[in-house]
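Repro case for the chain-ordering regression, as requested:
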Amino acid sequence: MTITTQMTRRHLLTAASTSAILVVTQWPSYVSAQEIDTDAFLKLSQDLTQVDKLDADFAAAMLEAYETAGKGDAVAALVNGQGNDDLANDIVGKWYSGTSPNPDSEQVVTYTDAQMWYAMTYTKPMGYCGGGVGYWADVPEI
Amino acid sequence: MADDITADILIIGTGVAGAIAGSKLAEKGLSVAFLETGKRIDRFDAVDKFWNAAIKVPESAYPNDDTAPHPLSHKIEDYYQQKGPELFRSTYVKVVGGTTWHWLGTTLRNVPSDFKTQSLYGQAVDWPIDYDDLEPFYLAAEQEIGVAGNSSIDLGSPRSGDYPMGEIPMSYLDKKFAAALEESKFEVRATPQGRNSTFHADRPECCGNASCIPVCPIQAKYDATVHVAQAEAAGATVYDQTTATKLNLGQDGKIISVDFRRADGSTGIASGKVFVVAAHGIETPRLLLNSAQEGAENGIANSSDQVGRNLMDHPSRLSWAEAAEPVWPYRGPLSTSGIENLRDGDFRKNHAAFRIEIGNDGHSWPTGAPQSTVEDLAKQGLRGDELDAAIKDKTSRHIRLASLVEQSPDAKNRVTLDPEKRDANGMPLPVINYDYSDYTRAGLKAAEEAHDEVFEMLGAKNVQHSPDIQGAGHIIGTVRMGSNPQVSVVDADLRSFDHSNLFLLGSGVFPTSATANPTLTIAALSLRAVDPIASSVE
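-- result from build under test --
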């Protein structure tokens, strides 16, 4: 809920600043960090991960974390087609691990919805019940 | 200051030691009050906090308030003022229920030899009690905690009765270890555990949340809030967010009161007839030393100069590898089996004993997996189905061992008080001097060699050993029990030699660390102290 609220505010601010820029100038030849919105980052993330159902709220939080970490311009360049394998790999890794791109963050972007759990079909996030007593004694159903 | 708390028995700390003793004392009809520096914890909030934490250390589910500060595993030099030469790495939390909120749940008993290593092996010191003295209380403690185990398995500690519940099933991974080691010197056994294998004591059976550390979301695993609730039901009062800062001495050598400070900054005095400090191996000596005063110039209970000394842990050799085939970790309780037959033998004349814990938690402890694993695989450029398959294959083969090694008691390993740095309650921060003896280091080396052998028999690859000696989260010693008041702090009843109405409970009183995870022994000793405490109320 908090993320949604913050993103609504952030979208509004971004939209306002974009309008102001349009009054006095043409679109730049590349898309700057300030103008990357969640949809663009979400589309980039879907292309990189090859996962269609990525969450827009997590995309917003992740994009913000990249910007906070000083990587906003690099993300924008990647959106605009500039090659950057390390960053592309990092974005995929973050979607799978759920950890924040901002190394100083004390919180993850998500834990329970990290993509790794969809790959680890034999288990589930820690803190979720896995089944009856002793389900762990056998080969899992996968 | 208001004299605003009064009870027959004042207990400082609501962890397993204080809570179990307090519940039994309250049930005897005695008035009991607890002073607890931490908050009450909402279980779901703790789970949510853990999920959201970037660094998932054992403390990650709990508050670390200025008025209830605790050490953090990933910032081990912040709270502890470490003087070395080694870092003391074990931590705890300050909440109602204490660190049982994030204990693993292993409930092994000590073996009989652990009580007399000096007599048998010429090492360390003998306890003032032997195994037979404690056995009835081990049995009672297993009932109180609710231990699931197989009573017919010989773990080296003779039993006079059965566990209250049947064993927690071994994991698939355990069974792979057991099969590979069947003809070897390593005996894989199901571990007795303080978690329900069936509905028991109004708590549900374990459903394998795999988050025992830091928090069991459904309380299938015992924690000391069980006994806090029993104590309150019997009339005890818990004053949470209330920090004991100084024990006050009367004219007859008895303790007469405790100064305290609440989280809101207000202060007061708690008075009683008997005082129990059950704040474990760091905070108990911290309080005693901070209570130096006329008549106890070296600190309360410290005429022997032993308070704060002989700090121990189970220094741990942490090793990990990749199994040849999937063994499906990251499921079930974090550990369900161990190798226990290396805990005693004539070798103890030469090197420390150890037990090997088999983990079901993959590489979480050493590498932060599975998060670290998936990021590493992504860095290789894998995508889509190929990435998913690699994650599944890699993580399904993660295996981990940790040997908990007996540590020598050494008077130079100690907790003292920082002369300048204080917390928000005005309490000096703990200073720690810490090292390992050659005897302990030889045990660590033997453990590493054992890990190599086990992994080899399993056909595992990519064996790695942590370059650092790890802490086990077992804070032992600093107010040791003994029969000689010149070299120990409490007697076999856990009563201070210096103050007849002061008892110290918890793993701080252990004269030696042995190799068993300490909680069951803490509980047994606390139950044994109940009658002496009760009879001291006049």
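Ordering looks correct now. Chain B touches chain A through 54 residues (CB under 8 Å).
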